[in-house]
Amino acid sequence: MGAQDNGAHKPGNALRVRFPKDFVFQLSRVERDEVVANCDHLRRLKFSPTMPFAFTEHGALMAASVLNTPRAVEVSLYVVRAFVVLRETLATHKELAKRLDELESRLERKLATHDQAISGILEAIRQLMAPPEPAKKRHIGFLQSD
After folding, report:
1. At CB < 8 A and 24+ separation, what contacts does 103-110 make?
2. Per-residue pLDDT, 3
3. Which of 35, 37, 72, 123 could form a Cys-Cys staple with 67, CB 3.0–4.6 A?
4. What does the angle CA 124 – CA 115 – CA 130 come to, to the nearest 5 degrees?
């Protein structure tokens, strides 16, 4: 009865054991191409036959806690701060989107009121532009009534 091999020592499996699917995911070809286009230092990935992996927020924090070299600690602090800024930016965008929606609805209400007013003005102008009905002219002289 020996120890069972869970396969965690193999390079491909070590990543899956330490970082489950909610911590790391593999990029699609479109995502990889976008990352390569936006990040010059990753240009080597452009011709890679395999798709790279990316960490979620939790995966980045997990990676930061595992590494112990001074450079790793520095990078982990950078990653954590980047996620904090990202979270704050998203919160700001949500608030901004909410305020933009409110502004848009107020503007639509005002435009509806303005549309009615403009329609009224245009109708009045049309009435003024219409030729007047000919006035009944009174005949000169004596009229004989029957």
Report:
1. none
2. 46
3. 72
4. 20
